[in-house]
């Protein structure tokens, strides 16, 4: 625990940006929009977790953020491949 | 003290670019432009936060293991994220989701005989 | 599916072991033995997915140094494109002009193509959609946020000018 209070302020800011992205995830007209917003949320929460780990000095949060970054990219790729078949194409 | 200012400026720059990407995701008119705006978050947003974190952990705290872990996070996000961007763009285009306003030039459309 | 080569297994093992050492960050013999066993198993199963060409090209010092120089070239391009994109976003997302252009590229081989496509995707403002080959010439389909040039060769020079030259320097035979 250090006296770097601005790290917590930046972490809360990044988490607030993630909440703004949640609006696009709920509203987005196509699946691609939702997945873009979800990917951005994942990256922002990873960054906020890194900042919080720096503030508290608990390195276990860094492991969790590595796993979060990996899994977020894998599910983005999964949805992309799923959309790729031509069944969605409007005639 | 100088190091503290440098780290704050790095993390603040990362937060500014993350804000730019977030605004772009909200207000851009179609799917493909939103995807472009969200690239701002994954490049300089992550890079600013991670460089600040590496400086903090390696020089101020002397905790090399945590600095290397933050470096691994930066490397992972930078190298794997474009693959997801390719997948979403190509999947949406081939799946038939076109923007409302027609694009300026569209060379990819010729391949679908439309 | 090509056959698994011994050099491919060796280089995949080195990469896995480096990743393990970076994540655990100890020289405890117990951790090292566990890492060696896990890396050998992972390398045996996954080497055929990763490495198909000559595996030890990186020991050539000229190529390794050009790789290091490419990182800085790419960072400069990245910062320029990011500032441009941030201006468009803060300016209300009005002055955009999106379009998809088809651009000829002069790199050949799996690794340089993947590296150039990922570099183009990482700079905000351009995303690669697909790679096509028509009579000996490779083409990228690139979504561009601000189409200022519709001629293919000139648009390619604007989008990927310096990066392509450096990548050809790295991967030249």
Beta-strand content bin of chain A: under 5%
Q: Calculate the mean pLDDT score of chain A and round it.
A: 87
Distance between the termini of chain B: 62 Å
| Basic shape of chain A | elongated
The largest inter-chain interface, given as chain pair and residues per side, is: A-B, 50 and 50 residues
Rg for CA atoms of chain A: 16 Å
Tell me the series of helices and strands of chain A, N- to C-terminal.
HHH
* Major sheet summary line of chain A: none
| Number of helical stretches of at least 4 residues of chain B | 3
Could you tell me the mean pLDDT of chain B? 88
As residue ranges, the low-confidence spans of chain A are none
User: N-to-C SSE series of chain B?
Assistant: HHH
Q: Indicate the percent of residues in helices of chain A.
A: over 70%
| Percent helix range of chain B | over 70%
Total E-strand runs of chain B: 0
Number of helices of chain A: 3
Shape of chain B: elongated
Helix and strand composition category of chain B: mainly alpha
pLDDT < 50 runs, ≥5 residues of chain B: none
Structure description:
- The complex is a heterotrimer of chains A (about 90), B (about 110) and C (about 170).
- Chain A has about 90 residues and is mostly helical.
- Chain A has one domain (about 15-85).
- Chain A contains 3 helices and no strands.
- In chain A, α1 packs antiparallel against α2 (about 30-55) and α2 (about 30-55) packs antiparallel against α3 (about 60-85).
- Chain A is elongated and about 55 Å long.
- Chain B has one domain.
- In chain B, α1 packs antiparallel against α2 and α2 (about 30-60) runs antiparallel to α3.
- The longest helix of chain B has about 30 residues, at about 30-60.
- Chain C starts with 5 loop residues before the first helix and ends with a helix.
- The model of chain C has no long low-confidence stretch (mean pLDDT about 85).
- Chains A and B meet through α1, α2 and α3 of A and α1, α2 and α3 of B.
């Amino acid at each position: 625990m250090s006296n770097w209070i601005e790290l917590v302020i930046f972490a809360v800011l990044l988490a607030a940006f993630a909440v703004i992205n949640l609006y696009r995830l709920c509203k987005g007209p196509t699946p691609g929009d939702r997945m873009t917003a979800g990917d951005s949320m994942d990256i922002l929460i990873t960054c906020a977790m890194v900042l919080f780990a720096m503030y508290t000095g608990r390195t276990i949060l860094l492991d969790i953020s590595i796993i979060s970054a990996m899994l977020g990219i894998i599910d983005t790729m999964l949805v992309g491949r799923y959309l790729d078949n031509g069944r969605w194409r409007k005639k | 003290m100088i190091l503290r200012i440098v780290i704050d400026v790095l993390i603040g720059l990362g937060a500014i670019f993350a804000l730019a990407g977030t605004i772009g995701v909200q207000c851009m008119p179609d799917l493909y432009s939103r995807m472009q705006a969200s690239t701002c978050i994954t490049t300089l947003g992550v890079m600013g936060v991670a460089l600040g974190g590496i400086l903090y952990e390696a020089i101020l705290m002397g905790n090399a293991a945590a600095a290397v872990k933050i470096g691994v996070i930066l490397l992972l996000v930078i190298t794997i994220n474009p693959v997801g961007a390719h997948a979403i763009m190509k999947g949406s285009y081939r799946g038939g989701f076109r923007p409302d306003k027609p694009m300026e030039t569209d060379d990819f459309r010729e391949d679908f005989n439309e | 599916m090509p056959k698994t080569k011994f050099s491919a297994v060796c280089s995949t093992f080195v990469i896995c072991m480096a990743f393990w050492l970076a994540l655990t960050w100890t020289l405890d013999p117990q951790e090292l033995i566990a890492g060696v066993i896990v890396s050998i198993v992972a390398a045996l199963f996954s080497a055929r997915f990763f490495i198909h060409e000559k595996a030890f090209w990186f020991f050539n010092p000229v190529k390794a140094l050009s790789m290091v120089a490419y990182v800085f070239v790419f960072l400069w391009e990245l910062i320029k494109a990011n500032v441009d994109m941030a201006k468009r976003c803060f300016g209300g997302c009005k002055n955009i002009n999106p379009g998809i252009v088809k651009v000829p590229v002069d790199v050949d081989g799996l690794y340089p193509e993947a590296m150039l496509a990922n570099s183009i995707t990482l700079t905000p403002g351009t995303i690669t959609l697909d790679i096509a080959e028509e009579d000996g010439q490779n083409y990228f389909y690139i979504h561009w946020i601000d189409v200022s040039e519709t001629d293919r060769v000139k648009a390619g020079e604007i989008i990927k000018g310096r990066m392509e030259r450096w990548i050809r320097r790295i991967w030249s035979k």
